[in-house]
């Protein structure tokens, strides 16, 4: 999931956490807020995450 610097705002949806083969999440440089969804704990194949430059707790 590559979506850096798209000026997305709001919370990160739970839906990517339901993609068991997801390997990369890059949401760098958006306007996302809130917390990382609990469903992301199910992403056993995840190798890299970049959520920098957002307002995530």
UniProtKB/TrEMBL annotation:
This is Leucine-rich repeat-containing N-terminal plant-type domain-containing protein. It comes from the Eukaryota. InterPro entries: Leu-rich_rpt, LRR-RLK, LRR_dom_sf. PANTHER family: MDIS1-INTERACTING RECEPTOR LIKE KINASE 2-LIKE, RECEPTOR KINASE-LIKE PROTEIN XA21. Pfam families: LRR_8. The lineage of its organism: Eukaryota, Viridiplantae, Streptophyta, Embryophyta, Tracheophyta.
């Amino acid at each position: 999931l590559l979506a850096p610097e798209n000026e997305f705002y709001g919370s990160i949806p739970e839906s990517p956490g339901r993609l068991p083969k997801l390997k990369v999440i890059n949401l760098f440089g958006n306007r996302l807020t809130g917390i990382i969804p609990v469903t992301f704990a199910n992403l056993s194949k995840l190798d890299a995450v970049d959520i920098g430059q957002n307002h995530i707790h």
